[in-house]
Amino acid sequence: MRRFPVLIVAAGAVAMASGSIIAIAAQHFLGSAAFEPAPAAKPELVTGSIDSRWPKPGVERQTAVADAAPEVAALEVEAAPEPEKRMVVAKPTCNNPNALGVSRTVQIDTMGGPGFGMSQYRDYDFLRPGEVVLTFDDGPWPVTTPMVLAALKAECLRATFFSIGKHATWHPEVLKQVVAEGHTVGSHTWSHQNLAHKSPQEAQDEIEKGMSAVATMAGTPIAPFFRYPQLRQTGNLKAYLVQRNVAAFSIDIDSEDFKIKKPDVLVGSTMAKLKKNGKGIILMHDLHKWTALAVPELLAQLKANGYKVVHVRAKDTLNTLPKYDAIVAAAQPAKSNNARAIPQ
């Protein structure tokens, strides 16, 4: 397999009205703008906590990163991106003087497809002790997503939502509300398939169709952020995101709200994991009622225990592919109040 040198750099803080901004740049020196063939198949990328959640019978656990970690170096703050590529971020408003609030914003340059979340990617960790990133998967969904948004708004917080493409076509008005309230929106495939069990083309179709659907239904460009369903991926799939300049987000703390259905137990369990870890990217799901009910108390516990919330956003917007934009535009989404959420 041909290897390419990789550079990930972190810039210093820039004072802004909403807090400090850290610019993170990742650049792959490929030598050509053209996409190269994907490398030979690699084993699925898993680590202890993730492997135990979704075990593969008969397969030994693999280490998270097959290749050497890229070089990390300091870099001066870069010039602002061109206006046409700049992410549109709603101006923060906060009417709660005692709100938890966003302590700082981290800006990600997704050139070269960096990975974040220590469960699978150990190349770069942008969080300081006591900091968390709130992330929600599998929306948008009626009732529950707005409940989560209301809880976040009450504490003047911003989170990252990894939306399923099909759900976005069913409930575009909910997705637009997420965007309007200034949260970061990434994608989570078209229909939440386990991509590690798909052919390369099927997996690519799931990724791209999901990206196009979420961007189309949001009505505005979204972040080039992606999370694999069930955090399942292979080396080839990660290489594809590298080619597409899309950042892959894993996690540090799993709320396990897919199985913990009592809000008080969910809050206690998540806080215990956070205390043990000290910081991290927290995974939750905004389509679960018990999660939506738990979020206000979780935020109260974060504030009471002195944790700081970091908002993650992208330097540039996602470039969707016209082929998949056309597929989404031509589709006739089901408009039904009885639409069932795609299983996790």
Secondary-structure topology with pairs:
Elements: E1 6-14, E2 20-28, H1 48-53, E3 71-75, E4 102-109, E5 115-116, E6 131-137, H2 144-154, E7 160-163, H3 165-170, H4 172-180, E8 184-187, H5 200-218, E9 225-226, H6 235-244, E10 247-249, E11 253-254, H7 263-277, E12 280-285, H8 289-304, E13 308-314, H9 322-330
Parallel strand pairs: 1-3, 2-4, 4-13, 5-10, 6-7, 6-12, 6-13, 7-8, 9-10, 11-12
Antiparallel strand pairs: 1-2
Helix pairs in contact: 2-8, 5-9, 7-8
In short:
By secondary structure, this protein is α/β, with parallel strands linked by helices.
Summarize the structure in words.
The chain has a single domain (6-31, 38-330), classed as Glycoside hydrolase/deacetylase (TIM Barrel, Alpha-Beta Barrel), CATH 3.20.20. α7 (263-277) crosses α8. By secondary structure, the chain is α/β, with parallel strands linked by helices. Mean pLDDT is 79; it is low at 1-22 and 25-84. The strands form two sheets. Strands 1, 2, 3, 4, 6, 7, 8, 11, 12 and 13 form a ten-stranded mixed β-sheet that branches. It has nine helices and 13 strands. The radius of gyration is 19 Å and the shape is globular. The chain is 29% helix and 20% strand. The protein has helices at 48-53, 144-154, 165-170, 172-180, 200-218, 235-244, 263-277, 289-304, 322-330; strands at residues 6-14, 20-28, 71-75, 102-109, 115-116, 131-137, 160-163, 184-187, 225-226, 247-249, 253-254, 280-285, 308-314. A hairpin with a 5-residue loop joins β1 and β2.
